[in-house]
Amino acid sequence: MDLAAPLVKVRRSAAALSAITTLSVAALVWAIVVTRPAPEPAMSITSPGILYTTPLARFVTNGSAIIAVGVTLFLLLLGAAGRREYETVSQRARVIGIAAGIAWVTATTTTWWLQAAAISQSGSKMPFAGMASYAVEVTSGTALALTVLAAVAYTLAMLTRTPSSWPLVCFGLGLVGLVAVPVTGHASQGNARWLTTPAITLHMCAVSLWVGGLALVTVLVAGNRSALSLVLPRFSTVAGGAIATVAVTGVLLAGPRLTKDVTPHLSVLLHALFETPAGWLVLGKLAGLTLLAATGGFIRQILLPAVRRKETVALATLATVELTVMAVTIAIATVLARPL
């Protein structure tokens, strides 16, 4: 049996994963360094290790949640008939979902402890029991506790596959856990919560569907022309709506985030964009979105017709580029979501 081809495929996948991880972590570190917020009074005794490790834990939390939602979207796009026809693919998706759920629970619990330690008088020596007080007394702590519960429920639902509508149940749990923390982050800052809260909710849901869905389609069926011809056209419709939602909600969130004003004067907004660290992060997100829209359009207009004809296409290569840009953009957004 010739093992050369599978080994080459594994090596390429490992190289792609390494590149995505390295570039996204580098972007995260860069965003942390250029913003360097002054600690709030309650955080005056917090060690730099806690302050700068927290965004990394949040990034892993966000990434795990997005993959978890992507798994459920992929299973829903397959449909009941598709899950039966491509049972091996469905099982692989489920395994990824379970792994993502476990990572999600772990990363969120770590974030919970780090944030509790950041405002605790005992700092890094804070006992885990202090997490309960943080969850009860601080809104962001309550959101993290809700996220942990949703992630645990998601993982258990993935493991048990009950009831018969388990992909839809997992989908709902994933979205609940995904948006709980962002709506208490920069969406809760300022006086325009009536705008920022629904906007960040839609923004995060759209990002998870777009990024998570593309990741699962690429990993699981990029080389399976039959399954790809079933899933990609359905995903393309979802992705089109998602990118439009991300763009619109991103514009709605930029003004309140940078200026604390729903309708800032143009000169004030431009100054905030080009002269402040938060503005640089927004511009980075905008550049990423522009590139993603271009690659998404190429997939939809050029590759999709060939996929429908079950022809071989270079989806994996183009999707890897798109996923890399997505990961870098999410890393920047993770830092942008914290108080600056």
UniProtKB/TrEMBL annotation:
A GO CC term assigned to this protein in UniProt: plasma membrane
Membrane topology label: Multi-pass membrane protein
Compartments in which it is found: Cell membrane
Annotated keywords: Cell membrane, Membrane, Transmembrane, Transmembrane helix
One GO term (biological process): copper ion transport
Chief place of localization: membrane
Annotated transmembrane regions: 55-81, 93-114, 134-156, 168-188, 200-223, 235-258, 278-300, 312-337
Any Pfam family matching the protein: CopD
Domain called Copper resistance protein D: residue spans: 231-336
The protein's name in its UniProt record: Putative copper resistance protein D
Species in which this protein is naturally found: Kribbella steppae
